[in-house]
Write a structure and sequence with these properties.
The chain is an alpha+beta fold. It has 8 helices and 11 strands.
Length: about 375
């Protein structure tokens, strides 16, 4: 399992665990709600029996009038509508009389009570019946909205945990990468100093000048790489730079040091397109994108770099004729650790995104891609 897979697994584990907790709470709330509803049903059944005993004609001989009235008066919260056998409203309990003045409004109220609970039938004798329609008590109605609050709290909790986890992991990764980069720069610095000394000795030994020139180019390149790594984790200095010239320099370097099987081409407008740029980090970005394109073409194909200008933006396109990408991977390839190669850590495109978006406040994305036809990356930088 690579870094990206592990991070995704941990993320989903936290989310699913939170959902399970919320689900268990909702399940127990539902059970509690049903028990309350059953208790209210039992209470209303006793109340209906008391009402039946009071309304029967003749009244039962063993009826305790004081007890009946106490039971009836004990209900102070549950709304009740009594109807006769024909459905006509006879009288009500715990309902504002004003709501019954309008017949249409009274019918809607009765319909809502019918939807909430099954009616209780009162047998008054001689085939005469009444129906008790009752609604939920205020406590029960409040409890209906309790799960919604729990769900919102649950999702808020998931969001907080997810944000905290992501922020913590990103902070740890950034510190790790910055530390590795600075250590790499430090380790390269020692042999690099020795190489510079050896080139001076070779000059005195009358070695072929072209050999020394090439060595100096590579030493300069190593110095650039060292400087790049040393900048990781710190804010780079941006200078007003002609993006056409910077792109041309990166192109020239990469073309001379790449396979002859790669057909390089560049299209740039005439003139000057000024942007705020750190040359070392920008050339690193172009190098990462070009190397990624060469890998996608398996070392053979066409690679084009072009610069285009808009009113406020400068756009740099790197187009290859490689294997292409599926659309669902357009954003995924910029995540740390994501790679389709057997070797490598999958940091090249992630660093490119950090350099362009984090340091230069620009944009980088896959502009277009088609399987077995190629991919085009797009870098956008604000003009100054």
């Amino acid at each position: 399992m690579n870094f990206t897979d592990e991070r995704t697994f941990n993320r989903w584990f936290i989310i699913i665990s939170c959902l399970i907790v919320v689900g268990l709470v909702l399940w127990n709330t539902s059970i509690f709600f049903q028990r309350l509803k059953e208790d209210e049903r039992a209470k209303m059944s006793v109340w209906a029996k008391a009402q039946e005993a009071l309304d029967r004609d003749p009244a039962p001989e063993d009826a305790d009038l004081d007890l009946i009235l106490e039971i009836l008066n004990n209900n102070t919260t549950i709304p009740i509508i009594h109807t006769d056998a024909d459905g006509e409203i006879a009288y009500t309990t715990n309902i504002d009389p004003g709501k019954l003045e309008d017949p249409e409004r009274a019918e809607k109220l009765l319909a809502s009570l019918k939807d909430e609970n099954e009616p209780i039938i009162i047998n008054l004798g001689n085939g005469e019946k009444q129906y008790i329609y009752y609604g939920n008590s205020p406590v029960l109605n409040s409890l209906k909205y309790y799960p919604i609050g729990l769900v919102l709290i649950g999702f808020l909790f998931i969001g907080v945990v997810y944000f905290f986890y992501t922020t913590t992991k990103n902070s740890e990764q950034n510190k790790l990468w910055a530390g590795m980069a600075k250590e790499t720069a430090h380790q390269i610095g020692t042999p690099l100093s020795s190489l510079i000394g050896w080139t001076e000795i070779l000059k005195q030994e009358n070695v072929n000048e072209s050999y020394i020139t090439e060595m100096e180019k590579d030493i300069t390149r190593l110095e650039t790489i060292t400087e790049r790594f040393s900048k990781i984790g710190s804010s780079p200095i941006l200078e007003k730079t002609n993006i056409i010239e910077a792109t041309q320099n990166s192109y020239d370097y990469l073309k001379t040091r790449s396979s002859r099987l790669i057909e390089f081409s560049i299209d740039t407008p005439q003139g000057n397109i000024p942007v705020m740029l750190n040359r070392q980090l920008y050339s690193w970005t172009i190098e990462n994108l070009v190397k990624n394109a060469i890998d996608a073409m398996r070392g053979k194909g066409k690679l084009n770099i072009s610069v285009q200008e808009e009113q406020k933006w400068a756009h740099i396109f790197i187009k290859d004729t490689g294997k292409g990408l599926e659309k669902n991977k357009f954003k995924l390839i910029f995540e740390p650790g994501h790679t389709s190669k057997k070797r490598g850590w999958g940091l090249g495109l992630s660093l490119a995104k950090r350099i362009i978006e984090g340091y230069h406040h620009g944009r980088i994305k896959v502009a277009e891609s088609e399987i077995n036809k190629g991919t085009t990356f797009k870098i956008s930088l604000r003009k100054v």
